[in-house]
Write a structure and sequence with these properties.
This protein is α+β, with helices and mostly antiparallel strands and 141 residues long. The protein is built from 5 helices and 4 strands; from the N terminus they run αβαββααβα.
């Protein structure tokens, strides 16, 4: 499986890329427990280097017991919000992103990227919390 989004972007790109904000579901399977470190470096760099895309990482969580359904075995779910599909697709196609992508390849065995658009009104608010393994690792602890 090719982990680079460029492998499939042209085949799946809709005609209208400006329908409003999009949240991309990322399902992640790491090569090993140690693979989290190059992946966190990838996240740090993408968030900084590709900030002009409007990317906002809004959630990351370790997947636990599967209550219902069968979508395979994954380690982490990550949600990233972009101002539009255009911003998301342009980021994936950018030279800046492509230079960082090898860090994701180093860390991941496989990944799913799945954009979604809101079908109901929603409200967002900032939630402050203490702790979190990824937060500590991202902050260099």
């Amino acid at each position: 499986m090719d982990l680079n989004p460029l492998a499939t972007l042209d085949a799946v790109q809709p005609a209208d890329l400006d329908t409003g904000p999009v949240v991309v579901l990322n399902l992640l399977k790491f090569k090993s427990a140690e693979s989290i470190h190059p992946y966190l470096e990838y996240l740090r760099k993408v968030s900084a280097v590709c900030a002009d895309s409007g990317i906002e990482l809004i959630y990351a969580g370790a997947l636990k017991e599967q209550i219902q359904g069968d979508i395979g075995d994954w380690d982490v779910v990550l949600l990233a919000r972009y101002p539009s599909r255009r911003a998301c697709y342009e980021m994936f196609r950018s030279q800046k992103y492509q230079e960082l992508h090898p860090l994701a390849e180093e860390a991941l065995a496989r990944r799913v990227l799945w954009p979604s658009e809101p079908v109901m009104p929603y409200k967002t608010s900032t939630i402050d919390f203490e702790g979190g393994e990824w937060l500590a690792l991202l902050n260099g602890a």
